[in-house]
């Protein structure tokens, strides 16, 4: 697919898709499944899979296992789930009819919103671009996909793939910098799906509002992990380090900070450091299981956070090493952190893990609720009362208990944030609805309303009073 190069080109591309959208809207479930199948068949070719693995290695030094687990695997999972449910999702859904509407049939008719814009991030550049595209295809929408400029190799892979599988008037990949995304959001798309930071998400939403386009915003924030005293320290620490170390911490749902019960804080921090060594060795820079920071800008952000924390009294108990030439940043555990430090005020998006302590859950709830609502909330605890209380007294896009990441491994679960961490839900039926207009339909089958037509006699008035009392 050619890369659009100007605002006029983008507008022309959208007009082409707008012209094709009515035809696409009439496509059947079978036809949409066939289109999803094209993508899996493309990935089934091991040569293509290897090209994708190489692209992610180039962009992020992402280990092959992490690529298969977090980039390729989810695409297969979502396609298979969509294909198993799509026929039923597309069928009109009957709604019960109240007595006042006797003689009518009521149902919801599902129609595509039309032309969708998907703006994808760099941290999981294949997964987070492909999954919304899959649901747009399922809904019968056209798509303009704008991948991140910070993952050029993966973008080129997707461009080549969609160029082979689809015409531009159905799915087109547009390359470019932030200005390209801004120009696209100003066009009259019917729906905009954006994954990125809250700051940019606000700009996307404001631009979409000019066209009254609906939006799905998958953002981020400071996702907490609460560790109670009753956990198995070794197992819990390994769980946390895996969640934080995956993709070098560049994950929107990675734990952004820990709050550990003071009774086990010291041994727990030791267990965290031991887990880092067990996973990545004495020198994680030499490990082929550890990714790199995406670019120098993000690297400098992390070093700035670390220097600020140390300057304000935080202690590095594990890691701290970094190498700008290699974009390497060691898995780093900090203690002695305070809320005044930048690591506790800004989203980290990297392998720095601040550790705070608490004496009771009231402290935890108060601290968490002072911050904007997070995308993910992690609880490491065996006591069910603690879990129930934290669920009842806090708010987050999603919650995992004694686990990390697996909430977005299940296509049937809704995924997304709340307020500052996102607007709207994706995945599964929720993902289908994201790109679908739920059209209310009322059909008159028998009887009519002539008995309440003017003139409004006493008989009519009496009838109207009785209708809503039945």
TrEMBL record:
Q: Where is the active site?
A: 218, 252
Q: Which residues form a coiled coil?
A: none
GO annotation, biological process: aldehyde metabolic process
Keyword field:
NAD, Oxidoreductase
UniProt cross-references to InterPro entries, sorted A to Z: Ald_DH/histidinol_DH, Ald_DH_C, Ald_DH_CS_GLU, Ald_DH_N, Aldehyde_DH_dom, Aldehyde_DH_NAD(P)
Pfam families attached here? Aldedh (PF00171)
- Which residue intervals define the domain Aldehyde dehydrogenase in the entry? 4-441
Q: Which SUPFAM superfamilies match?
A: ALDH-like
Matching PROSITE patterns, A to Z? ALDEHYDE_DEHYDR_GLU
Any one GO MF term held by the record is: aldehyde dehydrogenase (NAD+) activity
Xref: PANTHER family: ALDEHYDE DEHYDROGENASE, ALDEHYDE DEHYDROGENASE ALDX-RELATED
Q: What family is this?
A: Belongs to the aldehyde dehydrogenase family.
Q: What is this protein called?
A: Aldehyde dehydrogenase
Which organism does this record belong to? Neolewinella xylanilytica
- Read off the lineage from the record: Bacteria, Pseudomonadati, Bacteroidota, Saprospiria, Saprospirales
